[in-house]
Task: structure prediction
Amino acid sequence: MVAQACTDIEHRSRAGAILRRIAAYTGVTVATVGLVTAFAGSRAHAADIEYDTASAAEIEAHLEDLEARRDDAATSLTGLQTQLTAAQAVITAATEDYGTTGAQLLDVTAAVESAEDELGAKVSTLVEYAQEQSDKYAEAEAATETADQLEPQIAALEAQVEELDAQIDEAEAAYDEAAEAEAEAAAAAEAEAEAESESASSSSDSGSTAEYSADAATAAVQFAKDQLGESYVFGAAGPDTWDCSGLIAGAYGVSGVSLTHSTWAMWDETSAISRDELQPGDLVFYNGQGHVAMYIGDGQVIHAPKPGDVVKISDLDMGMSIDGYRRV
Result:
């Protein structure tokens, strides 16, 4: 009974020593188990954010938090993958050393033959060989257990890194959109203030000196409509591609009216009118005089909007700030 107890104690002690030796070799510690759970608990999901209503600064802070979480997860993943590789190396080495049954038989036979003729020596040799094989098996078993623990943790961290990458891409796109919208809003506000100032200074002659040329205006509207669906190209003035001022200059050019291919110059070359005076062929300027369209009646304009778009008809109030109304 005492001998059996001693044997059990020795077995547990030896197994513990082997496990500690494997752990030291692979870099695995008790703290490693449950690492993914601990990581997920220590870094909760970033604060919820509504991209549609958040400012660029708020989205930027959210993005930085996501990137920090992604870096933490990637670092943990690298550590676990290193540990798994080491454990698998132990398993491979033990398998190579342990060998097949035939190889073991050859090893035993060689060990016995090399021992002294005395039976006790041979038995001792066999016991030592058996103990060596038992230790190798235990090492491989401990390394296998470690690998089994690491693999699901690695899979969970890989999924976490992938999800964070997707969230980072989404946040970056939202940040770009918010920053662009804020810049456009600031520019529009500045343009509106300038337009109000200019409108106040020119209100005295609004409509009083602007003579309407029906023939030229009608021809210009028809010309512009004939270009519907043709592509926008910056700096283009026909015959098949246009930018906003190029379309207007081309439309009035058919009647011999010369307008400079520039929205700002075109503003200076035309006369101010009020919104109530708008007639087909009159011009509407937007976004700090950076865009121009032609009024065609019924609250609509025709214009060449932007890269990637085509000549088309839009509402007079199409979302851009209006600087003023001019007559050629």
